[in-house]
Amino acid sequence: MAELPPFQTLIDDHATEVMAVLRGAVGRDGAEDAFQETFLAALRAYPSLGDARNLRGWLVTIAHRKAIDHHRARGRAPVPVETVREEAVFDADPADGEVWRSVAALPPKQRAAVTLRFASDLPHEEIAAALGCSPEAARRSLHEGLKRLRKEMA
Amino acid sequence: MTAIMDRSLERLRERAAAEGLLDVAYASADSPFGSLLLARTPRGLVRLALPSEDVDATLLDLAERISPRILEAPDRFDEERRELEDYFEGRRRAFELPIDWQLSHGFMLRAREGIAAIPYGETRTYSDLAREAGNERAVRAAGSACSRNPIPLVVPCHRVVRSDGSFGLYAGGVEMKKRLLAMENQSG
Predict the structure, then answer these.
(1) Where do the structural domains in chain B lie, given as residue ranges?
(2) A95 to chain B nearest CA, in Å?
(3) What is the homologous superfamily of the domain B3-88 according to CATH?
(4) pLDDT digits over B81-108, tens only?
(5) Chain A residues contacting B via beta carbons under 8 Å
(6) Which has the closest alpha carbon to B69: A44, A148, A98, A72?
(7) Predicted ipTM?
(8) What is the DSSP annotation of B140-173?
């Protein structure tokens, strides 16, 4: 058995980031529900987790599965961005706000790949694991997403 | 943490508890001796750490011995806080909180149940305790039933003293033991 720290330390260390990832992936309105689902699923699985070395990656992976569930449940792809919110989604450089709004408008896989790579700083292998696809497919989604962003931001 | 995050976490705790996923809840509580750590399971109070004890080490120990599904839940300890406050102000002579004894077994459990039965303002010796728990020669074990008592104050191991009349040791420091006994003598 791995020595697992009290679950509260996962919340203290990663809740803010998970919320940010979810806002990037499903938008502000869906993020709260996805956040609840993410941490309940994590709490349910936690005692049988065999490896406590990458708890952050584990949580972000669950968050992305929940984001994908969210999109599936809504039965359609990306959130249309007709009215752009004024507040920034991330506590980042204000100029970043615009980028993330464009990210939120990407198709789900591309959006997830971009968010996982740049908001969560995950390597390709973990992005692939989170999305349930091959590393090549993850790389392709990331590439397509970035290409589209570049075009849009140009 | 922001107010929005606070509300999300409050909702998470409620849902976790409703779904049986909150195995251990903990919170701190004020006392005249410093901050106490309280931990409870759905069955009752399972651990109380005195100000002298390390909070992180205590929580790690609970993660290992009970479950790692541990959440900080300051809103779930109203009754514990009220009874402790009444006790420290001399208004309460006995605790009515449900207790979860799962950290005590065998002789230790019997000895600690014996401690819980010592009336307010009275003392027993370690030998009394050993005898009442069914093994009069287990005086040293009775000593560790006190020194490693997972729920001090509520299970009042400060009421156990040495046969020669001296105070003996206390996890919270002998000064705290003296003050507790003096307070109970005054209020008793």
Answers:
(1) 3-88, 106-187
(2) 22
(3) Methylated DNA-protein cysteine methyltransferase domain (3.30.160.70)
(4) 999 999 999 999 999 999 999 999 999 9
(5) 3-8, 11, 15-16, 19, 32, 35-36, 39-40, 43-44, 46-47
(6) A44
(7) 0.92
(8) HHHHHHHHT-SSTTTS-GGGEE-TTS-----TT-
pLDDT at B84: 98
Q: How confident is the model at residue B134, as a pLDDT?
A: 93
CATH number of A122's domain: 1.20.140.160
Two structure tokens written together for B117: 């039965």
| pLDDT at res. A94 | 46
Q: Specify the residue for token string 């004020």.
A: B30
pLDDT of residue A150: 83
Residue with tokens 């996982």: A116
pLDDT at A107: 81
Hey, which residues of B are catalytic here? 157
Instruction: Name the domain count of chain A.
Output: 1
Looking at chain B, the whole-number percentage of residues with pLDDT higher than 70 is 99
Rounded to an integer, what distance in angstroms lies between the CA atom of residue B35 and that of residue B53?
Answer: 10
With beta carbons under 8 A apart, name residues in chain B contacting A5: 60, 63, 68
Nearest CA in chain A to B18: A40
Q: Give me B113's structure tokens.
A: 């149940």
Residues for chain B: how many in total? Answer: 188
Low-confidence ranges of chain A (pLDDT < 70): 1-2, 75-98, 100, 120
pLDDT of residue A83: 59
- C-alpha to C-alpha distance for B59 and B70, rounded to whole angstroms: 8
Q: Using only C-alpha atoms, what is the Rg of chain B?
A: 17
B83, B92 Cβ separation under 8 angstroms: yes
Whether A67 is in a domain gets the answer: yes
* Closest CA–CA distance from residue B72 to any residue of chain A (Å): 6
May I ask the CATH class of domain B106-187? mainly alpha
